[in-house]
Amino acid sequence: MEKQPAGQDGHSDEEILGLLDENVREWCIRQLEGRFTPPQRMAVPLIHDGKNVLICSPTGSGKTLSAFL
User: Fold this and answer.
1) How far apart are CA 1 and CA 15, in angstroms?
2) pTM of the model
3) What pLDDT, on a 0 to 100 scale, did the predictor assign at position 10?
């Protein structure tokens, strides 16, 4: 099992946007101003690669949106 050390921000917002479908990318730019939270920047690339991911972070930090992206 791979572990992501706490406190690392993961990928850049631009890298995350590049992984997304065009319609989802446009939504993220409009609704989120193209910015992602640290938990999202760590999780989305792994989810995109088909990895199983467990996100432990405070309420409102973007865990659910990470799963949908």
Assistant:
1) 24
2) 0.81
3) 82
How many residues in the chain?
69
Residue the block writes with tokens 């930090």:
61
DSSP 28-48: HHHHHTT---HHHHHHHHHHH
Q: How many CB atoms lie within 10 A of CB 26?
A: 13
The answer, yes or no, to whether residue 6 has pLDDT greater than 60, is: no
CB atoms within 10 A of CB 41: 20
CA 32 from centre of chain: 12
CB-count exposure of residue 44 (10 Å: 0-12, 13-18, 19+): buried
